[in-house]
Amino acid sequence: MSLPSLILRDLRRAWIGGGALLPVAFFLLVAILFPFAVGPDSALLARVGGGVLWAAALLAVLIPIERLVAPDRDAGVIDQLLVRGESAATIAFAKLVAHWLAFAPPILVAALPAAALLDLPKDVLIRTEIALVIGTPGLAALAVATAALTASLRGAGAIAGLLLLPLAIPLLIFGAGSLDGGTGALKLLGAVSLLLVAGTPFVAGAAIRAGLD
Amino acid sequence: MSLLRFAGVTCVRGGRELFAGLSFALEPGNAILVTGPNGAGKSSLIRVAAGLLRAAAGNVAATAPRALLTEQTALDPELPLARALDFWVPRGAIGVALDTLGLTELATVPVRLLSTGQRRRAAMARVVASGAPLWLLDEPANGLDSDSLARLEAAINGHRAAGGAVLVASHTPVALPGARIIELGA
């Protein structure tokens, strides 16, 4: 069992049943609804639009959270992988990479029409895209860790949200903070994202192991 | 050189002791049949042997790769059977395993359309194709008709003749010539 084959399987399973399209649809829907809520004031929309895209990305990453770990646990796939000598951390890392590949590139593309809807200036859009590229691996890592922690609970979606959203605050602060220009916030965003990506395989792996009992 | 050795193993689940001080060794060619009523700890014993559950006391040593058959099929339901097995056994060993368990004609059928007994045999095909010397089988005869049961027994006998060992937990009779029987919850 190689890492690429684990990632490919998770990716394939994310795509079937629209699992990867739902977050994008959700992301776009938030961008469509927001101007209705605050009114068609283009100066105001341009000022807050970048932050709206960040909040939308944060909510979109939550959508597939129940499908990340729990189905494999229930189907016995994780048992079989562990018996074959695969470490729980490797399984979690594969899920992290697959989740990022399934949700981040579509969101980066969807940010273009979303920016048009919010009438974002070009430079803000470019900065938002850069921050999303740096920040989304951290978001994917948080999602996998939360999914592993809540995999043994029934109807864990709401609890997963309550667990994930507060932990994502640093990503949100530095991600939205980088929109004013300057590279300080981007560097901090990168640091937080890197920390989450490096820590998640071990946290999620331990959670997967503990969930076997 | 034993493939699997239990030394004074105690298993506790949910605060309840299922078995205590269990010791045995599984040599190449050996078979052990674990029997007992529902809830006696048969599946837990298999999971302890697979390294998925920690023993509350005692020592479990496995010196060979293991192949596990559990209640769950662990095959992606949307894929045709042969492709679902491909993920687990990439070396082209699937054809023989499918043939051994009489599944060749079902190779292109999606896993979700298979019956209970067919899924069981599909999961067993993964064990056969794994090439692991040590087979850990939890209720392998569940849902099998008499013809499939004969195929299962033939597969196990062939594996033992080739120097493999099996640990079988079953509440229904499985013919394992010369197998040691461990009765739990007696």
Describe this structure in words.
The complex is a heterodimer of chains A (213) and B (186). Chain A has helices at residues 3-15, 21-38, 42-62, 70-74, 77-83, 88-117, 122-149, 157-167, 169-177, 184-210. Chain A has 213 residues and is mostly helical. Chain A has one domain. Chain A contains ten helices and no strands. Chain B is of the alpha/beta class. Chain B has five helices and eight strands. In chain B, strand 6, helix 5 and strand 7 (165-169) form a beta-alpha-beta unit. The longest helix of chain B has 16 residues, at 146-161. The two termini of chain B are 30 Å apart. Chain A binds chain B through residues 1, 5, 9, 13, 16, 74-77, 79-80, 82-85, 212-213, and chain B through 13, 47, 50-53, 65-68, 70-76, 78, 87-88, 90, 126, 136.
Order of helices and strands of chain A: HHHHHHHHHH
What best-fitting shape of chain B do the alpha-carbon axes yield?
globular
Q: In percent, how much strand structure appears in the residues of chain B?
A: 25-35%
Major sheet of chain A: none
Radius of gyration of chain A: 18 Å
Q: What is the chain-wise order of helices and strands of chain B?
A: EEEHEEHHHEHEE
Fraction of residues in H or I helices of chain B: 25-40%
Topology:
The complex is a heterodimer of chains A (213) and B (186).
Chain A lengths: L2 H13 L5 H18 L3 H21 L7 H5 L2 H7 L4 H30 L4 H28 L7 H11 L1 H9 L6 H27 L3
Helix pairs in contact in A: 1-6, 2-3, 2-6, 3-6, 3-7, 6-7, 6-10, 7-8, 7-10, 9-10
Chain B lengths: L3 E10 L2 E11 L4 E5 L6 H8 L7 E6 L3 E4 L11 H6 L7 H7 L15 H15 L3 E5 L7 H16 L3 E5 L10 E4 L3
Parallel strand pairs in B: 3-7, 3-8, 5-6, 6-7
Antiparallel strand pairs in B: 1-2, 1-4
Helix pairs in contact in B: 3-4, 4-5
